[in-house]
Amino acid sequence: MTDFAKGPTRLLSLSLLIAAAILAACHKSETPPEAGAPAASPANSTAPAAAPAAPQASTAPLKVVALGIGKSVGADHKVPAEADTFAPSDTVYASVGTTGGSPAAKLTVRWSWVARSGAEKPVGDETKTIAPTGDTATEFHLAKLDGLTTGDYKIEILLDGQSVATKAFRVAK
Known about the structure:
This protein is mostly beta strands. It contains one helix and eight strands, in the order αββββββββ.
């Protein structure tokens, strides 16, 4: 073949190579999105934008993560200033912090007066059924119309019947 005849063949080969490259770029294969990542959508899509996803309920098991006692609780059911000594006329507030979720958990508070010998005398208890879906606080309180007896006290927290936290405090004149 002469050099003159090779020119159009080279030109045709080069044209086919360029066309194949353009065609390959137009049909670029996309890698699938990572698990949990949103799929890409075309820019000229007329589909309505998806609404933001609602927060999902916690799937972690419910557990007690905090116990605070004080002379008051805030609107968030938390004790703003912890205390360990109270007057007989005070109301003792307890804030039990939980995390995780449960459709119906039983949160119990047991209040006891502790004798010098170590023996405990129950002075009150309360159970609340809660259904949290994340971090929350539950409030309990102890008060007596004629005042609390002076001495040492203990608060015990039970979650579904299992003791999960205790704290000591004192009532003094």
